[in-house]
Specification:
There is one protein chain. By secondary structure, the protein is an all-beta fold. A five-stranded mixed β-sheet has the order 1-28-27-26-25, with no helix packed on it. Strands 2-35-34-33 form a four-stranded antiparallel β-sheet, with no helix packed on it. It is globular, with a radius of gyration of 21 Å. The protein starts with a strand and ends in a 6-residue tail after the last helix. 49% of the residues are buried.
């Protein structure tokens, strides 16, 4: 039974005490912009300390081989990178400035693999070959690369068959029908690289690439550690579009949660079950009394390392679990809370307590393009309750009030491209230990950094990336 403590509409009131301010608006360097159909834009963005100077840098990228229509509009294969510092100083670029909007947040990650203080770029790279036929449905012309963050030069690259043999769907044999568009594209467009620690090393030095129905794990030498392919591929009835990594069993090595299965550090399933439709968002994080759990948005599930349900809200309560986020979001409640966007691409959300597994509030967030992208941010310090970012607003879930961020231009939305809305990465970029918000619209030309008032720049101790920065949960 699910109990409801109270309900409210968040959009009805504002909370002046939140006091967000625009710390910096960073124009993407003009040399890194592209123009397509009379629209000028930068592309998708990742953050990290690329040159090792203790400050956050930025990487903008674009891709080749756009799909024909619908969810596949935009490039799949990275072909341009431009790196620059927070003050706009250009660090390097590769790829000649071409490419189009990435179809979704894709196969690019920034992480310091070797521990020297300067992050590397882990990526796909489009490398066409003469007479090689490959379109948006094929990865025959892709290589996996690790690039030097200081220079952009390739440190190493590989073209393993586990990647290059992948297609949106298997090539049909003579006499066999091809799969329908809805079935074959269900998970192909969401290609993602996640940094992980599968070998139990002193720092995360591995990564997993998610490609449609397949996950492929690598070490930092680009050796394939393992590969796993699921039988579930149908739209809305497939594993998570974006998996999550974390150590759920406490052995010092990461697992991969895809909602319908939990893969151990060696790629073998610890459990496998189709928990619910629309498994759009997952996590591995502490929930009840510090126990680490697999969080699965489909029908609202929290399960342990062996697949036993700790919480199951069910289809009637969560018909379409679009997004789920776990953090301490109410300082009047013990433990973390779960906020879940439970009716698909709508502003509707519910908040649950980890102490009781009960719903403590129902609310409506502000509407935004595609109604995704909420993210907890530790605005008042890591030891205090997080605020919730959503669509250009910042919300306090205890007071049920929020503010639009000042001086943030409206996103381009569907007028330009499906990805025309603000992505968010929380990170400590200036001042004290409170987090800032890094925002960008992939169809825009600027990056915006918001910080809480008052700002004391003398208290800053340098940029330190954690999993929420090098594995950002960017939704699409």
């Amino acid at each position: 039974m699910i109990l409801l403590a109270f309900g409210f509409s968040l959009t009805a009131a504002a909370q002046p005490a939140l006091k967000p301010q625009l710390y910096r608006s960073i124009p993407i360097p003009k040399a890194f912009l592209a123009t397509e159909d009379n629209h000028t834009f930068g592309g998708d963005v990742r953050i990290g300390d690329l040159n090792g100077d203790g400050r956050c840098d930025f990487l903008v990228y674009r891709s080749n081989h756009s799909g024909p229509s619908g969810p596949a509009i935009g490039g799949f294969k990275p072909c341009f990178f431009g790196a620059f510092e927070m003050d706009g100083t250009v660090l390097w670029s590769v790829g000649g400035g071409g490419g189009t909007h990435p179809v979704r947040p894709g196969s690019v990650a920034i992480h310091d693999l070797d521990g020297d203080g300067a992050a590397e770029v882990i990526c796909f790279w489009h490398q066409p070959k003469n007479k090689l036929k490959a379109d948006w449905q094929s990865l025959r012309d892709i290589v996996v690369q690790i690039r030097d963050g200081k220079t952009g030069e390739v440190i190493r690259q590989a073209a393993p068959k586990e990647i290059t043999s992948r297609r949106c769907q298997p090539e049909a044999k003579p006499g066999q029908p091809r799969l329908s568009m809805g079935r074959r594209t269900a998970n192909w467009v969401h290609q993602r690289i996640l940094v992980a620690n599968f070998r139990g090393t002193n720092r995360p030095r591995d990564f997993v690439i998610k490609l449609g129905d397949t996950h492929v794990a690598f070490d930092d030498r680009l050796n394939v550690l393992w590969s796993y392919t699921t039988e579930w591929v149908e739209y809305s009835k497939c594993p998570a579009y974006i998996p999550a990594v974390g150590d759920i069993d406490g052995d010092g090595r990461d697992e991969v949660n895809s909602g319908y299965f939990l893969l151990d550090h060696d790629g073998k399933p610890l459990w496998k079950r189709r928990l619910g439709d629309n498994m759009d968002s997952v996590a591995i994080t502490a929930w009840d009394d510090g126990h680490v759990r697999a969080i699965c948005s489909g029908f609202g599930h929290i399960v342990d390392a062996r697949g036993k349900a700790v919480l199951s809200l069910g289809k009637s309560e969560v018909p379409h679990g679009q997004e789920v986020r776990i953090a301490n979001q109410r300082d009047d409640l013990p433990g973390p809370e779960m906020v879940i966007r439970h009716k698909g691409h709508t502003p509707d959300a519910i908040l649950l307590s980890s102490e009781t597994n009960l719903i403590v509030s129902r609310f409506q967030l502000n509407a935004s393009p595609t109604n995704v992208g909420m993210e907890p941010v530790f605005w008042n310090s890591p030891g205090k309750a997080a605020l919730l970012y959503n669509g250009g607003w910042l919300w306090d879930l205890k007071t049920a009030k929020g503010n639009p961020l000042p001086d943030l231009p409206p996103p381009n939305g569907g007028l330009v491209h499906r990805m025309g809305f603000y992505h968010a990465i929380p990170a400590n970029l200036c001042g004290d230990d409170r987090e800032e918000l890094v925002l960008w619209d992939p169809t825009g030309t600027d990056i915006f950094i918001y910080t809480p008032k008052p700002l004391d720049q003398s208290g800053y101790r340098g940029y330190r990336a954690g999993p929420r920065q090098y594995n950002p949960r960017i939704m699409d």
